[in-house]
Structure formats: structure tokens, C-alpha cells
Amino acid sequence: MNKVKIMATEYTVLEVEQIDKGKRVLGEIDYIEQVIKLEKELNEDLKKEILIHEILHGILEKLGFDDLNNDEQKVQSIASTLYQVLKDNTNLV
Ligand SMILES: [Zn+2]
Fold first, then answer.
1. CB neighbours of residue 33 within 10 Å
2. DSSP letter string over the chain?
3. In angstroms, what is the span from residue 40 Cα to ligand 1's centroid?
4. Which of 25, 27, 48, 66 could be a cystine partner for 19, CB 3.0 to 4.6 Å?
């Protein structure tokens, strides 16, 4: 998958060597450039979970839920749970 559509915006998903040299950042979303970056070296399971995390940021940005969007702990909790539900219920959508 290299494109993700979130409401009217289509994001390009890129796998990159390193997102941020200083910090250990595994994923990133750029609302202006409409790009989601994921670290190439991650295992597929973690990569998908981080993709869901970045998609969730994209959804919250679209909805204007800025407080929630800036709360990394809540975003990560929802993302990892949502990923588990989607993974364990493949016939859901
Ligand atoms: Zn985040």
C-alpha cells in the first residue's frame, strides 16, 4: 500500500531509512506535504501499527481534534487497540 486516503486528502506512504537522526522516531505524518513516512527496517506488524497511528493523526487533524491529536499516549493507545481489532476481525470492513 503506498497511498492512503483520509477524507478528501490522499497521503503518499513512503518507507525511509531514517526519519529523524536525533530521535528514535518510527513514523511521521506531514499534513502539508501529504506524506506519511515509516522506517523501512521495522517488521511488518509494527510497520502496520505505526501506519494506523499516523492515519489516526491524519483523521484527528481533519476533524480538528487538536488536543487529542497532540496527546501521543492517547493516540498510541487507540492506534494499537484499533490495529488489534482490525487484525483479529479481518471480515469487519
Ligand atoms: Zn504520533
1. 10
2. --EEEETTEEEEEEEES-S-SSS---EEEETTTTEEEEETTS-HHHHHHHHHHHHHHHHHHHHT-HHHHT-HHHHHHHHHHHHHHHHH-TT--
3. 17
4. 25
Q: How far is the CA of 57 from the centre of ligand 1 (A)?
A: 7
Cell of 43: 517488521
Domain boundaries, the chain: 3-88
For ligand 1, the distance from its centroid to the CA atom of residue 71, given in whole angstroms, is: 8
pLDDT digit string, tens, across residues 37-91: 999 999 999 999 999 999 999 999 999 999 999 999 999 999 999 999 999 999 9
pLDDT at residue 3 tops 90: yes
pTM of the model: 0.93
2.30.110.10, 2.30.30.30, 3.40.50.300, 1.10.10.2910: CATH of 3-88: 1.10.10.2910
